[in-house]
Amino acid sequence: MAKIIDGKAIAQEIRKEIKERVEELKARGKQPGLAVVLVGNNPASQTYVRMKEKACQEVGMYSEVHRLPEETSEEELLTLIDQLNANEKIHGILVQLPLPEHIDEKKIIDRILPEKDVDGFHPVNVGNLFTNTARFVACTPRGCIELLDRMGVEIEGKKAVVIGRSNIVGKPVAMLLLHRNATVTLCHSRTADLKKECLDADILVVAVGRPEMITGDMIKEGAVVIDVGINRLEDGRLVGDVHFESAKEKASMITPVPGGVGPMTIAMLLLNTLEACE
Ligand SMILES: Nc1nc2c(c(=O)[nH]1)N[C@@H](CN(C=O)c1ccc(C(=O)N[C@@H](CCC(=O)O)C(=O)O)cc1)CN2
Ligand SMILES: [Mg+2]
Question: How many structural domains compose the chain?
């Protein structure tokens, strides 16, 4: 039976540490500031943005949320980014994804100053991650590594398998594991024998966006399983990309959904914003 990795508790601990560092900065006359930009009415995005706003308040950061209508033009959004780039109170800028169809996501992200890109999505930050000189690492991948570290999981020399090759999770988390001297395999929808690859993993990170796709029979006895997926089923239940009940019989440690990686995403956003200010 696996030990459950309590991401919610670990994120809370990190938020407490951040709060102390914010207080130190404030004593020196500096306050970290985050601007969050939300375009449109996506209900999940609205929830995440509220969570980010609340998290900033809780640790004593300055925050402003720009809620723009669905029909906002690309030009209007670029103008707002320019204003936030120039605003000295703002150390971090985050544009909540996904953006509406008519807006080119890349064009928007490219416009954010790399030194304010606390999401770590700007090509300069992505490039720096590749060469192991990163300033800002995307929040969810950073959160995965932080969970492993805080649980005392040794990464060096381990066989790490990442399932999913998205720019937001799969590719950056693979790069972070590589920089920590894991031997990394990056799997995807065309991987010939996914089960065989999974069964090889000491550390298995799953970010495919398919509910409960990875089952216990695909997990090596004693593996550490990090489930990045958040899927809402028709019956309302929230599940990961890993079938938790069968997987926990094989793994030595596993993240639950909810309460695993998710809460770490916001904790790492606060940490990136704090570091941007420092
Ligand atoms: N600009 C960005 N957009 C998006 C990101 C991102 O990092 N930057 N990530 C996701 C959404 N996300 C933050 O924006 C996020 C997702 C999930 C959670 C979380 O705490 N989840 C909880 C469950 C919450 C629920 O009930 O739905 C959990 O897993 O326990 C926080 C942040 C896409 N967009
Ligand atoms: Mg995904």
Answer: 2
Rounded to whole angstroms, the Cα distance separating 267 from 10 reads 9
Given the residues 6, 117, 119, 241, select the one marked as catalytic.
119
- What is the CATH number for 70? 3.40.50.10860
Asked if 119 is an active-site residue, the reply is: yes
User: Would you place residue 138 in the very low, low, confident or very high pLDDT band (cuts 50, 70, 90)?
Assistant: very high
pLDDT tens across 253-275, in order? 999 999 999 999 999 999 999 99
Residue with CA nearest ligand 1 atom 22: 262
Residue 189's CATH number: 3.40.50.720
Residue 255 in any domain: the answer is yes
87-101 pLDDT tens trace: 999 999 999 999 999
Residue 52 designated active-site: yes
CA nearest 211: which of 193, 232, 225, 195?
232
Tell me, yes or no, whether 103 and 156 share the same domain. no
Ion ligand 2 neighbours (CB, 5 A) are 209
The answer to the question of whether 232 is labelled as a binding residue is no
Rounded average pLDDT over 75-97: 98
Q: What is the per-residue pLDDT for 230?
A: 96
Residue 184 is part of which domain span?
139-262
Residue 184 lies in a domain: yes
The ligand placed nearest to the CA atom of residue 139 is: 1
Per-position DSSP letters for 168-231, written without gaps between them:
TTHHHHHHHHHHTT-EEEEE-TT-TTHHHHHHT-SEEEE----TT-B-GGGS-TT-EEEE---E
Instruction: Tell how far the Cα of 208 is from the centroid of ligand 1, in angstroms.
Output: 15
